[in-house]
Specification:
eight-stranded mixed sheet; alpha/beta; 15% strand
Length: 317
């Protein structure tokens, strides 16, 4: 287990607990009461730390190296039923964008999401979760296929942004994202979006237009990352914590501003601390949202989606 800087008190207590248990096993000394006291202190410390996280600490949690990624969720939700589909039928297959058919129970879904890597080799393969235009065009191709066969779409958002390289711009990065946003607003099947990690800028919006947008508790969703915001405003990354606070990028902020529909609770310690519980909670949230959306006709679905996004950003003084 890797620990973030603000989690170091937890690390110390867990090490103390491990040592206490080892002493109990290797000697005749009864340390059960001591272990119980440490466990109690550990739980109190966890609750105290995780209920008072700052926006910047939640950004750190969303990037935790042990946090589950898109394929982890898909494998947990669909098991062996997932069939990955490749290519945009134009340039190539973008490894940063995953897509394919899978079943939760008896219901088929088209899953689409950004995938990050677990080590240096896979991070390079997945381009750190930053999609090129062909990734967004692949996503759109799969959404259109889902629409053709009446299959609901689930998108899983976890990206530091769309790839900003020269070759991506040459192949029409901005147009690809804009096209996806346009087509998603009028797709005639339910779209359920789940923000499972980072939700940065147009990279997230390219697959982020949903009838229901669910956001995990320790994730963020914003037009720009705190570091980039800090570098623009203060010419330095040192003010990233202030930027995170000002951007109002947490799940609670997004819900308050009615930019997301529901906050999905995470286990104490984050999604990576209890993956099984996290996957189960996300599955329940997806099925609940689908149950509500499946009652609507295609026309009502599109109209409600258009109304929802048209109302965003309306301000009354």
């Amino acid at each position: 287990m890797e620990y973030l800087d603000f989690e170091l008190p937890i690390k110390e207590l867990e090490e103390q607990l491990d040592k206490c248990q080892i002493i109990g096993k290797e000697s005749d000394v009864d340390v059960s009461e001591t272990c119980k006291q440490i466990e109690k202190k550990l739980m109190e410390t966890k609750l105290d730390i995780y209920k008072n996280l700052t926006p910047w600490q939640r950004v750190q949690m969303s990037r935790h190296p042990n946090r589950p990624y898109t394929l982890d969720y898909i494998k947990a939700l669909c098991g062996d039923s997932f069939l990955e589909l490749h290519g945009d039928r134009n340039v190539k297959d973008d490894k940063a964008m995953i897509g394919g058919l899978g079943k939760i129970g008896d219901q088929s879904f088209m899953f689409i999401g950004q995938q990050k890597g677990y080590n240096t080799k896979t991070r390079q393969l997945r381009n750190f979760g930053m999609s090129n235009p062909e990734g967004y065009r692949k996503a759109l191709r799969l959404m259109k296929s889902a629409e053709k066969f009446g299959i609901p779409v689930v998108t899983l958002v976890d990206t530091p942004g769309a790839y900003p390289g020269l070759e991506a711009e040459e192949r029409g990065q901005g147009e690809a994202i804009a096209r996806n946003i346009l087509e998603m607003t009028r797709l005639k099947v339910p779209i359920i979006t789940v923000i499972i990690g980072e939700g940065a800028s147009g990279g997230a919006l390219g697959i982020g237009v949903g009838d229901r947008v669910l956001m995990l508790e320790n994730t963020w969703y914003s037009v720009i990352s705190p570091e980039s915001c800090s570098s623009i405003l203060w010419r330095s990354w040192e003010y990233k914590e202030q930027a995170a606070e000002a951007l109002k990028l947490t799940a609670a902020d997004m819900k308050k501003q009615k930019l997301v529909d529901e906050i999905v609770k995470e286990p104490v310690g984050g999604a990576h601390s209890d993956r099984t519980a996290t996957f189960e909670t996300v599955k329940d949230a997806i099925l609940k949202a689908f149950g509500e959306l499946n009652k609507l006709s295609a026309k009502d679905l599109v109209n409600k989606r258009m109304d929802k996004y048209a109302q965003m950003g309306v301000f009354k003084d």
